[in-house]
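Entry:
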Amino acid sequence: MPTGTSTAAGLLLGFALDRALGDPRRWHPVAGFGSAASALESMTYADERTAGVLHEALLVGAVTGAGFGLARSAGPRGAVLLTALATWTVLGGRSLARAGRSMAEHLEADDLAAARALLPSLCGRDPEVLDADGLARAALESIAENTSDATVAPLFWGAVAGPPGLLGYRAINTLDAMIGYRNDRYRNFGWAAARIDDLANLIPARVTGVLTAALAPLVGGRPAAAIRAWRRDAAKHPSPNAGVVEASMAGALGVRLGGRTQYRYGTELRPTLGDGPIPAVADLRRAVLMSEAVQLAAALVAALWTISGLCPLATRLCR
């Protein structure tokens, strides 16, 4: 099997494993990486950017290097299995959709306690200060952003660089989630993690925006509305990538996102994205449907792109 085809097959098989099984319930490698990163932080931490750069380089370098070593040793015959296992390890699409549906069910049952308990699995906002509308908006915005972070971006980097791309991207994104904050502890130490994550998601976020616009009719929306919200509102967002995916999702759904956003470390006043009413529970369910459609489309695009031979790094790793 040509190496481009084996990479594509591995990506599709790994995507299918995620859809069928979701995240491993025990001994998740990403959780193990997080524990290792926390342990290393106790030795590398200093309130300086250079310390954060070292921390990032050590962890991402180790994971990416391990990916290269595994890809080289697997050879063509083991490439499909290795890529599939790496893809399943780093994807979080099924868990994201499941959390979104559970949030909708809790809100429909007016069970705010359960909805607040669930929110930390989706985002870092303070659930105790949110009412039902605030919980629906927080969940929807998280689904939009994590459709890119949890599925489209890893598939993109898997198509570009095979297992090293998959594992390296997940290390980058995990470190951003751990230390990429603007609070007193991480403003300097987490600077590198946040900036590198921005770079790693620059193209995937825009791929997500294009797919969201193209698939808008599946949720009763219009591609033109998604593109208009993207072009008009995305640049207002403090994140160069979250603004793209959230604005395009808002336009596709015909809702308005943004506004006062309460995190545990403080409050941010986010810009308005899209037109229309604030999200309702029905819109949250539509967002989950959109997320799943974008995830599937991204898997197919990544596989076709890899087969086309336009990703030379991925096709050479296992030679």
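Residues 132-179 form the longest helix (48 residues).
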